[in-house]
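Quick one, T. Sequence first:
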Amino acid sequence: MNRRRGRFGRPEIVGLMFAAPWLVGISIFGLYPIVSSFYLSLCRYNIIRPPAFIGIENYSILFTEDPLFWKSLWNTVYLTAFGLPVQLGFALAAAMLLNMKVKGQSVFRTLTYLPTVVPAVATAILWVWILNPEYGLLNSVLRFIGLPAPGWLSDPTWSKPALILVGIWGTGNTAIIFLAGLQQVPRALYEAATVDGAGILQQFRHVTLPMLSPVIFFNLVMGIIGSFQYFTHVYVMTAGLGGGGRGAGGPEFSTLVYPLYLYQNAFLFFRMGYASAMAWILFLIVAVILAFVFRTSSWVHEDS
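Structure tokens:
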């Protein structure tokens, strides 16, 4: 044992040697682009010409002269603030149903998870047909039962709720995580609550939610990060609705989410410096929100 340690050095060095390929990879493909993007955010850069340093001009234009920056930020915050709680609630309800001992349980679990393995582009195309205001499946059902049929993606009032509805469709992964958490709750706690006279709602409030709070916290954090990176569905579903040569984000910029506007500046208008500034602002916004979430996480149950 001593010979080996003398030959290869300290265990820490050996560990670093094994981790070296990953460290080199993250430095080249992760750290370098991050540092470069910060430098480019201080430059005027259109890919063709070399970057020209302009200081904080990109940031100044974003905050004072670009109304679409605020519009895209508001759309993203809207989808996060209103869509994420609905999606988490739906996923938790689905997990509780999947946790019940019923015949065909595995089939129901598979059907719940199945939408998450379908490619995002295929899902978006499917929902474009479902949400079509004239011949879409959803409006056909609404008309059949005598309810008004919204314009969905063609109506600025209903476009963001339509995206939230699509988000609910893809909560299978979150539901499975909730299901795993539910299966870790000791049955003895429910039995003790039943003996004390607690009903189903009281058991859910005083047993299920506290014991599931770490899983809820995890899904909340991942959901916030995912909501601020929402791109594929809105890009495909609103293609051609953006106007102004943008191709997506319509109608009337009501679905122009922040990542989509960043993409348009970078790869449609070739304003790489401007897009880099947007990326750093997005990073700071998410970091502040997550810091607040972690700071106020006293509601999360900790096992003693």
